[in-house]
Specification:
alpha/beta; elongated; 8 helices; 10 strands; TIM Barrel; 2 domains
Length: about 280
Amino acid sequence: MFRLLCTICTALTAHSVFATTLIHAGFVFDTKAGQVLTNRTITVDEGRIVSIEAGYSQALGAEIIDLKNAYVVPGFMDMHVHLDGELDPPASYSEEFLMNSADIALRSTVYARRTLDAGFTTVRDLGAGDIQAIFALRDAIAEGLVAGPRIFAAGKAMATTGGHADPTNGIKADLRGDPGPKDGVINGPDDAYKGVRQRYKDGSDVIKLTVTGGVLSLAKSGDNPQFTDDELEAVVAAAKDYGFVVAVHAHGALGMKRAIRAGVHSVEHGTFMDEEAM
């Protein structure tokens, strides 16, 4: 199956998305019916699957991809990725001071292609250190300039002061400054509204909060709650106004339960989830 996914993703991205392509598939997994179909032609037009028909058909001028000895399945979706860099602390921390947006965006094309070649055609990128880089990658893929999965990007994740996504954690005191909603740091309901509106202005597709500490937090606790009920309710209300879904990073149960009660759409990680949170 993995070989098939790599083959079909690579084959399609190697050709113009505006050409008509016929995929001759020996086996097609129909997820709706829960069965495997045999000997099918999948027609792709302008980058979209438009039909799946029995037999191996031909069309004048169409490109043929021969997968008669392979299984074809729908593209996978990964709901939590960070394509702007591979995690390699402490190098990843120092790189933030050495690399510019173009460096990060270009490096990210490698990870995007690896993700596509693994069979994932849609991803949610839930927090980037450089929002210009991740949005540039998203848009380049959407325009067919770079091979990669469709990206729904959060851009800058939102935290409270000293929280998991506070960008100044661990930085020398005289370099920290006083980050606010523009930087993804909020304190109180008013900041929460401003933070969501800033994400809208930036071009985010989804809101990401870090409502507890994290495994890699440079902080005392990895699971303590880091948002109040009022802050969470304000984020969810503002997100609803702008058509966002809200995803929350959460390890500790109390932080999860506060977020769930506020109406968030997904809980990421859930390491210490208890029965009530479940």
